[in-house]
User: Which sequence fits this backbone?
């Protein structure tokens, strides 16, 4: 992918899809389109997860990347047709105002902008305050509640309306690298493995999970269903190479420095060591991230599924997480795919991940 510094069409379609948590159908359709020709089976479940399988090994490797993104949900429409909302997932409210948004309705997209009092009309105290969510609204140009309700319903999901942009040969900005990048990786690995003459000993099950942003809920049900022996969650990780970031507090993670292999109590130590071995064997640059507690990723719930799962976590460095313009390096995504493929091929039925 990154050899010619172009975005793979599968990844590009995932980044363009609108799939706020709880309304992931667009991303799910992209996954099915690009994975059905390569997987032995692709199935859905009642939480909207997409679960693709390859091989018939005695043991199972689960690769999980969530396909939902942060967004909003319509909660109220006032008499003048202004639309109020609640957040889906974690937002920095400093970012809320003055954004183009897309409202996903049963009849198609409705476009609007987020608004609040202009800075010229604020007093000195108001200018220093971070707006409350209920103090920001969506303007769709409606003149009344009736007009707005003819287009939008309570409960409609909303996402930022932003495009994918190349910033340099390998860096791109997009709305939802968190975690379409990880979702892409787990299925791209399956696609690549399907083309090999020699399949992995383990059955490989790649899962596009839903509702990660509100509590890793899709991973909860899909991990129970898949019942893996080993699992890798693939998500984004904070790059700390921007001005003013305190590396004493947040560690040193660089964009373009390679995938981040996490280490800590949420991670099986033997899985961590195997990932490092694979990175070294393939000549893949990698970084190590320390996680002192259950992570805010699908790994937190997969690890404790049923009787426990030997779980690893691989992160793709990302700047400006949970904003309308997240920045990732395509080389990190490509190297993540290479690392996961090597890990899958390294697994033997005789491996013991107890410790």
Assistant:
């Amino acid at each position: 992918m990154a050899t010619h510094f172009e975005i793979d069409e599968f990844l590009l379609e995932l980044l363009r899809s609108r799939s706020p948590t709880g309304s992931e159908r667009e991303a799910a359709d992209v996954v099915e389109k690009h994975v059905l020709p390569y997987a032995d089976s692709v199935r859905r479940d009642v939480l909207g997860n997409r679960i693709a399988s390859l091989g018939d090994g005695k043991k199972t490797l689960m690769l999980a990347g969530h396909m939902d993104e942060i967004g909003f949900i319509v909660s109220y429409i006032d008499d003048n047709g202004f639309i109020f909302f609640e957040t889906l997932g974690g937002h920095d409210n400093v970012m809320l105002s003055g954004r183009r948004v897309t409202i996903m309705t049963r009849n198609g997209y409705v476009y609007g902008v987020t608004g609040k009092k202009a800075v010229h009309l604020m007093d000195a105290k108001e200018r220093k305050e971070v707006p409350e969510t209920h103090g920001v609204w969506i303007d769709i140009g409606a003149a009344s509640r009736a007009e707005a309700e003819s287009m939008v319903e309570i409960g409609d999901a909303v996402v930022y309306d932003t495009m994918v942009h190349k910033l340099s040969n390998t860096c791109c900005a997009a709305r939802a690298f968190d975690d379409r990048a990880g979702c892409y990786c787990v299925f791209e690995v399956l696609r690549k493995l399907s083309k090999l003459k020699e399949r992995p000993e383990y059955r490989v099950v790649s899962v596009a999970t839903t509702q990660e942003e509100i509590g890793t809920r899709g991973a909860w049900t899909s991990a129970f269903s898949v019942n893996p022996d080993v699992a890798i969650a693939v998500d984004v990780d904070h790059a700390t190479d921007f001005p003013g970031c305190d590396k004493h507090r947040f560690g040193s993670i660089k964009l373009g420095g390679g995938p981040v292999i996490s280490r800590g109590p949420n991670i099986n130590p033997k899985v961590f060591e195997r990932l490092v071995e694979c990175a070294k064997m393939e000549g893949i640059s990698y970084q190590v991230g320390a996680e002192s507690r259950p992570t805010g990723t699908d790994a937190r719930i997969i690890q404790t599924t049923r009787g426990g799962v030997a779980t690893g976590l691989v992160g793709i460095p990302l700047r400006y997480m949970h904003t309308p313009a997240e920045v990732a390096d395509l080389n990190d995504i490509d190297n993540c795919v290479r690392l996961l493929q090597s890990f899958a091929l390294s697994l033997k039925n005789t491996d013991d991940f107890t410790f």
